[in-house]
Amino acid sequence: MRILDFIKPNELSRVARLQVLAREIVEGYCSGRHRSPHKGFSVEFKEHRQYVPGDELKNIDWKAFGKSDRLFIRQYEEETNLRCLLLVDQSGSMAYAGTRSVDGLSKHEYAVRLSAAFAYLMLGQQDPVGLITFDNDIRRQVPLRSRPSHLQPILSALVADQTRLETDLGSVFRKLAPKVGRRGLIVIVSDSMGDVESISRALAQFRASRHEVIFFQILDPDEVDFPFSGRIQFRDLENAIGEQTVDAASIQKAYRDRLQEHNEALREACRRSRVDLIPITTDQPFTDVVHEYVAARRRIVR
Amino acid sequence: MSLLNAALAFGAFAFTIPLVIHLLFRSRFKTVDWGAMHLLDSMLRTNRRRMQVTHWLLLLLRCLIPVVLAFCMARPVWTWFRALAGDAPRTLVVALDDSRSMSATPSGRPSRIEVAKQQIGDVLADLSRRDEVILVRGSRLGAVPAKMGVADALSALRKVDASGGAVSIGQLLDAARQAAEDASHSRRQILLVSDFQSNAVDASTLELASQIETAAAAEPESDPAAGLVIDLLNVGNGSADLNNLSIDSVTVDSPVVVSRRSGVYSATIRNAFDLPANDLRLVWSIDGNPLEPRVISIEANSSVTNRLTHSIDHPGTHQITAAISRADNMLADNQRSVAVEVMQEVNVLLVDGKPANQPLAGQADFLAISLSPFAFGGDDRPDPVRAAVVSSRKFEQAFKEQDVRVIILADVGKLTDSVKRQISDFVDDGGSLVVFDGPDVRPDLYNEPWAGSHSNLRFPAKLGEVQGESRSAAGKNQNQYSIDQPASFYRPWQVLSRGDENPLSDVDVSAYRKLELNVHDTSSASNAVVLLRSGDGAPLAVSEKQGAGTVIQFAISGNDAWTNLPLRPVFLPLIQQMVLDLAGKQTDAMIDVGQPIVLSESDWPQPIQKFETATRTTYTLQTPRGETELDPPPDGDPIRITATYSPGVYRIQRRTVAVADPQHSESVVLMRVAGVDASESLLVDVGPERLNRLAQLLGAGVFENADSLKAVDHTRSNGREIWRWLLALLLVALVAELWLQQNLVRRRTMETAR
Question: What is the ipTM of this complex?
Answer without folding.
Answer: 0.73
